[in-house]
Amino acid sequence: MDAQTIVFCDFDGTITTVDTFGDALGKYAPEVAADILPGLYDRKITLREGVRKILEAIPSEQFDAFVGEVDDKPVRQGFSDFLQFLGDRQVPIVVVSGGLVPMVERVLARPGTDGKPLRDHIETVAAMNIDTLDPYFKIIAPFEGGTEMVEKVQVMGKYKYQKAIAIGDSLTDINMALKADLVFARDRLQQYLDAEGKSYVPWETFDDIRAYLETNGLPA
User: Fold this and answer.
1) What is the value of pTM for the model shown?
2) For 75-133, what is the HEC assignment?
3) Given the DSSP bridges, would you call strands 182-185 and 138-140 parallel, antiparallel or unpaired?
4) Can you give the CATH number for the domain in which 90 is found?
5) What is the pLDDT of residues 4-38, one digit of tens each?
6) Rounded to whole angstroms, how far apart are CA atoms 205 and 71?
7) In percent, how much of the chain has pLDDT > 70?
8) How many domains are there within the chain?
9) Which of 12, 65, 126, 180 has CA 20 to 30 A from 94's CA?
């Protein structure tokens, strides 16, 4: 695929209103998560090390319940209309998650404002999978690299484009944001980017992002 502009969008806490994956880690591996998550957010433990330790502490028999944690988590306001806005302008969007493919796909199967599944408007989903044949979760991470279980810059490198827009909210989005031409950042990501000296546009809903792009245009 070759695009003038492409959007790379985080999932947990970005498309969803809460960090579905992080919350599930805390619920299904509470002791390990309590020990590791603070170090992750302080960037003292790498995502590659920390996420692996937490996931591999979860029994495989809990996989269905783990994935089901997304079922009551709302999608952030304006996401469906934002997808249609991008589609009208032939701008592809790739969802890049530091979490699990089945959790992302489960949420994106919901109908949008046009009645079609949200997934119909998305180019692809890049994230981790889980092998449950062993007693505990075994991670399948096709984009593992550097300090990350899902190296989002590696995903970006699979596409040809002139300009990249990144949308995110937290730790897993830092490198993706640093690589992008235009960044929409909320929550913890704003603090991380302030520390990195990277400019961004603050946002809370996808209506904010759509309004900004309608006013200022896509990156040229």
Assistant:
1) 0.95
2) ECCCHHHHHHHHHHCCCCEEEEEEEEHHHHHHHHCCECCCCCEHHHHCCEEEEEEEECC
3) unpaired
4) 3.40.50.1000
5) 999 999 999 999 999 999 899 999 999 999 999 89
6) 20
7) 100
8) 1
9) 65
